Amino acid sequence: MLDLLPGIMEISRKAGNAILDVYAEDSFGIEIKDDDSPLTRADLASHRIIVNSLAQMAPEIPVLSEESDPIDFSERKHWRQYFLVDPLDGTKEFINRNDEFTVNIALIENGTPVMGVVFVPVQNVLYAGTQLGKRSAFIEKQGRRSPIRARQLAGHLKENRPVTVVASRRHGVTALSELMRRMEQHFPKIETINMGSSLKLCLIAEGKADFYPRLAPTSEWDTAAAQAIVEAAGGVVMDAGLHSLRYNSKEDILNPDFFVVGDPDYPWESILNTGSGT
């Protein structure tokens, strides 16, 4: 199979540059979609570049983008392989000009994200991961590529360092507070980082955080690329039943609540599988 990763990386950078062109303007052309989420000219510019470029690079692989016309599950369910795209993850972060937005492109095979790229346009930082062939995950910044690896907790806790939990600024606050109380019974030191978009998962892939609970709605295109990177880096993204998060298995594209952990060998079930619905 053609190595798609270099092409996906180049496409994500092109889309990111188009987003920055809009970001530099005074008006973003904001609209409100049927689901009450915002849409800007940057979302649409990125979408067009990604969809057209992927079609040129790999015309045999279908593309599902957040900004695509709806594709019925009766067609999608037959896809063994497809690209799943969020052209601008963190549109609210973009509108608020806090720089925490990304371009997300994933390759899904048989319901599993096997390749992903998350590009951070403002920082010119790119995360990538693949499980096709030799598994690898890396970050590119300042013209340099460095491998990344999720953090193992045993040595970290032995050195009396805090467990780092990354969380959304806006979503699932009440359920998160309840979970944090349980975690405090297991870990003597906990620090929390608040961040938007898929960068939360990338921090875990990079070994800078240990745990991300998502206890509020997300869509499959929000998570697929970053999940591929986390799992290529040795972590795991799992649903409330502690099974790997799957894609394209049902009519709607909403994810269940999920947990991202950097160290899958730690007994997380003692904290998470409590029968409380989280």
Percent in strands = 25-35%
Number of separate helices: 9
* C-alpha-based Rg, rounded: 18 Å
In angstroms, what separates the terminal alpha carbons? Answer: 39 Å
The biggest beta sheet reads:
7 strands, mixed
Number of strands: 14
Question: Order of SSEs, N→C?
Answer: HEEHEHEHEEEEEHEHEHEHEEH
Low-pLDDT sequence parts? 274-278
**How much helical structure, as a percent, in the residues?**
25-40%
Class by SSE composition: alpha+beta
Task: Give the rounded overall mean pLDDT.
Answer: 92
How does the overall form come out from the CA principal axes? globular
Query: Which sequence of strands runs across the widest sheet?
Result: 3-4-5-6-7-8-9
Please explain how this structure is put together.
With 278 residues, the protein is of the alpha+beta class. The chain is 32% helix and 26% strand. The protein has 9 helices and 14 strands. The protein has helices spanning 5-23, 41-57, 73-76, 91-95, 153-158, 173-186, 199-205, 220-232, 269-272, and strands spanning 31-32, 38-39, 63-65, 81-89, 102-109, 112-120, 125-130, 136-141, 144-147, 163-167, 190-194, 211-214, 236-239, 258-261. The strands form 4 sheets. A 7-stranded mixed β-sheet has the order 3-4-5-6-7-8-9, sandwiched between helices. α1 runs antiparallel to α2 (41-57) and α7 (199-205) packs parallel to α8 (220-232).
